[in-house]
Amino acid sequence: MRQSRLERPPGRPGRGNAYLRYVAPFLPPGSEATVGGSTAEGGEGGLWRYGDKEEPIVGDKISIRSARPDDVETICRFGAAHIPDHYRPLIGNEAAQAQVDRWWNANRITQAVDGGQVTVAESDDQLVGVAERGQLGPSHVVWKLYLHPDHRGKGLGPEMLRHLIDQLPADAGALQVEVFEANRRADEFYEREGFRYVRTEPHPVNPAMNIVWRELKLDRG
CB under 8 Å to 28, separation ≥6 — which residues? Predict the structure, then answer.
């Protein structure tokens, strides 16, 4: 796992009255920039700044923040526009549309947003990424992490994942994720980000929809 993605770099303070917050992965060490009215410094893994509250992560004209109630309609449209095309080659037309109908409807998204579980990424006021966390029993789980096709492979996924992790309770010791077995790109992404294989749950009809579970151990010290 790349330390600059999910862990504090050496010598950086953690949560407390003041801590250095990761706000952009695009500035080199030694550089400085003004973010939110204060100066931030380039350091290991990106741009860091002092703060005592959540602020949007900003970099390369992309901002990452917690979703608000007025985002619900836009999030639903994002799902309808991109999820079928993403899943159709993997699990078939009917199953792909079922993903939208079940998980991207207004009631489901509203519930998650109201619970503070959804993260969005924007570029030029356009939604380019959606991530959602939740719980399955006592376990914390990533339920969604999807990017606009034009923004894949550019480092945005790890930053959205980090934002989800920042929102977890302080005592959370692990984060799990589930992906369809056919979704090799997603499975490889989570493996790169430090999620270790746990188990595979077979689907009763479609092997492409077998569920692969992975888990990331969190060092919140």
Answer: 42
